[in-house]
TrEMBL record:
Belongs to the NucS endonuclease family. This is Endonuclease NucS. It is found in: Cytoplasm. It holds the Pfam family NucS_C.
Amino acid sequence: MLHAHLPRPSAPELLAFLRAHLHAGLLVQIAGEMEVVYAGRAVSMAEAGDYLLLVKPDGSVQVHGPRGVKPVNWQPRTDGIHAFLDDGRVVIEAERRSPAEVVRVTVLEGALACAFRLRDEARFMLQGSEAQMQAALARHPHLIEPGLTVLDRELLVGVGGVDLYARDARGAYVVVELKRGRATHDAVHQLARYVEAVRTQVPGPVRGILAAPDVTAPARTQLDRQGLTFVAVSALPAPEDEPERQPALF
């Protein structure tokens, strides 16, 4: 699992590590003192502090602070990740073309760099019905994306009912299509139709997320081409997390 690690790297050592591992199908983690700047639909900055940078093989990026489950910044999908030196410090930039967004992480002092080769062989279907999956994720939308707020379930648009209608942490509307098993191109086509329908009804940007345990390779390619996002949902809250039901009267 552990492919490589580099404790307390200098800036040139860290840059060489990133160039060797960022695009090699590995999960890369960098821990250390960093500054984080996001520019896109808004502008935000996390001041210098201790953070954990996580770059997954699919190009998604998360920056975590020392507390809580929500990242201080993230990119669910990227079109390019670049590492370079700027004024003697390593900078990692994660870019997205549509919508135009950039997360820029400057490593002020690296504590540890690791690269992991994780196997992705499991294929399974979530237990329960899609209605139960929808109810669980409506109560726990952070399992889809940190900062997501669900506005409605089964929202009727001209082409059908949207499983989850939400807004993300940056204010964009989000259409979420749910699948209990491996998602195919049919699910992507359905999601794209819902997104286009919602775009005709609301001002501002509208994103589409396909949430499922897995997705086929052709469907993944289709998602990327249409600017849609896949989120792997591999577990739902345990039954004890369910709200207590009122006893039936009859």
